[in-house]
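Practice problem: Endonuclease-reverse transcriptase
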Amino acid sequence: MATTIRAKVYTPRQAINRRLRLEALNSCVFPVLTCGCQTWALTERKKTNIEICQRKMERKIVGVSLKDKVSNTALQKITASENITEKALITKWKWGGHVARQQQGRWARETTMWDPYIGRRTQGRPRRRWADTFKQQLGGNWSDIARNRNEWRQIVNKLI
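Answer key — structure tokens:
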């Protein structure tokens, strides 16, 4: 049996349609997907699931399936889109600086920095908390560093 290679030929109308779909994806779908991401405790599993969702949508729009063996980096070049998890992480760092500079007693600060695990620990590995990302990168005094707006901006810009 002879194997045939499917080649998709795009007409200008299909190319415009794809461009509009990608614009809708970037302007409508991705913001909804990352809504509230600044308050997430991003685990590796959550990051992976978000990236899978992003790539599935992009593959559907471009018309490429997993069987076509197009790598994720090639797909990202075709769609010219940002990685959502990186964008969510940067948003989280910006929000962390904003919350750390707020006064004690503010609702946003109290709910974001709240640690519900008081008392006896449950069995097993401790759950990942919101501030663990900052503590891992900067240490336990990350909120003191965040109060200095210029220093915090430099740290966030290094992430970008």
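Discussion: The two ends are 51 Å apart (CA to CA). Students who identified this feature from the tokens alone can consider the problem solved.
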